[in-house]
Structures are given as structure tokens and as C-alpha cells.
Fold this sequence. Notes:
By secondary structure, the chain is mainly alpha-helical. It has a two-stranded antiparallel ribbon with strand order 1-2. A hairpin with a 2-residue loop joins β1 and β2. The longest helix is centred in the last third of the chain and has 28 residues. The structure holds geranylgeranyl diphosphate. Geranylgeranyl diphosphate binds next to α4, α8, α9 and α10.
Amino acid sequence: MQKLKEIGKLTEQWLERLLPSEETKPETIHKAMRYSVFAGGKRLRPALCVLTYRFCGGDDDSLIFPPACGLEMIHTYSLIHDDLPAMDDDDVRRGKPTSHKVYGEAIAILAGDALHALAFELLASAGNIDVVKEVAHTIGTDGLVGGQVVDIESEGKKILEEDLLFIHRNKTAALLRTSMRVGAHLAGAEEKRMADITEYAERIGLSFQIVDDILDIKGDQELLGKPIGSDEGLDKATYPRFYGLENSYAEAQRLLNEAKEIISKYENSEFFVELADFLLDRAY
Ligand code: GRG
């Protein structure tokens, strides 16, 4: 998607400026932070943040890009920790060896911690305490951490439908939703628009993880930048395991159609409509 690539490029220029250089002492940690951040990635969360900000009338790049980069740092930090031997124990991410494979576990943990800290510095720089609170809430036990805990505890077990939904909503959808809400908040969006953006984002977020589950079965590992089949290897709770591939795809399609319907009544919503189509049939 052209727009996603365009904002991705700008995000990378900002990340380049906002991350300490590799020559800054202690060099190892800055190298490790940069290694994972610049390993690739779609930059979906910062793009959602920036484009929602613009969609709601915001026009100050120097206000929105630092918090948007903070969201990408949080996402990267979650990937580093998710790949650790104590969690999913993955060797490859974004087409490269994972952080702990290159820097060892201690530095990988600290690289995640340091990205976490810098992210909040950048989020706070936008001067809106509600935004800082919302992001903190999103990544805690009522969000990413909570989803990850139930994900880990569900490995190898027969799980309930409500647990599967809990994992996907919290582990993945929450940060995508909050990325859009941060953009909307910082542009001063009014209540109804904020509510519709939230409804749209929740559907995009849940379908994103459903498609992620599908790609782990029938995706191209070259394009994905990570091996496929790891969910099955870890006996993870996924949509296809619960409902089958076809029904999972149909559910993602249903959610994305609803998302399009919600957002398309607004002017200048073309990107968000196009994004829903892209996310359904993405290959990476
Ligand atoms: C508190 C941030 C934080 C983390 C601790 C480790 C953990 C709790 C949570 C893990 C959450 C996680 C890894 C969810 C998976 C989300 C997901 C679908 C990742 C892939 O996202 P893409 O496809 O990746 O956007 P790229 O590489 O394109 O950015």
C-alpha cells in the first residue's frame, strides 16, 4: 500500500533521529535497540497513529511523529520479549536473527526495557497526559501483558472461545486500537468520531491477528520474515485451530467489512477503507 509505505519511510527517518546513535555509550544497548527497530516491519502502528491524526484534522508532523515512533518502539519491544527463550523461543524475526540470538538474553531483555522507557518519553512529549495513561493501560494486564499471559497459559490446552478472543483482543488488537486513538486524541477529535474510530480499530485489530494466525499456516516465510508453523509447534490457541481456515478467513472478512462500513461514512476515509482490503489478503 502506497500510503503505508510513505508514512513508513517518514517514520524511519524520525526513528533514526530519535534513537540514540550506536556510538553513544553504552554502545551495545543502543546497537541492540537499533538492530530490532531497523530490522524491518510494516510500521503499521505509527502509520495508523499519524494517518488518524491527519484524518481528524491534525497537521503538525513534529507533534505526531515522536509519539507515533514511541508506539513502534513499544511494538518492537513486545516482539523482542515475545521471541525470548522464556516465551516463544523464536530464532528469526523480521527476516533476521532475533535479538537474543545476536546480543544474548540479558541485552535483549534490556533492549526491550530501554525501548519501553524511551517510548514513554516520546509519548509524554506530545503534552497530553490522557494519551500517556491510555498507552500505559493498553500494554499492561488489561492489554498486551494480559493477552500474553493467557496466550502462554493456553499452550497445549483445550481452551474456551472466550479465552481465544481475550488473547487476540489484548495481545494484538489493543495496541492497534490505541495507536489510532492516540492520533485522534492529539488532533482533538470529537466524541462521535472517536467512538467510530475505536469501533473501526477494534475490528481491524482482531482481524489482523486472525490473518496472522492464517499466515502462520499458509504464509510465505520469505515474505513474512519468520518461520511458519510456530503456532502449531507450540500448540497455541489460534483461530484456525478453533474454527478451521475457511471459517477464520470468513470471520476476518466479516469484521473488515464492518470496519469499512463504519469508517466510509466520513470524508477522506479512503486510506482506512483500502487498509481493510489490504489486511484481509496481505501476504506479510
Ligand atoms: C508490555 C509491550 C509489552 C510486552 C510484554 C511480550 C508481550 C508482553 C506481548 C507480546 C505481544 C505480541 C508479540 C503480539 C503479537 C502481535 C503481532 C501480530 C505482531 C506482528 O505484527 P506486525 O505484523 O509486525 O505488524 P511487523 O514486523 O510488520 O511490525
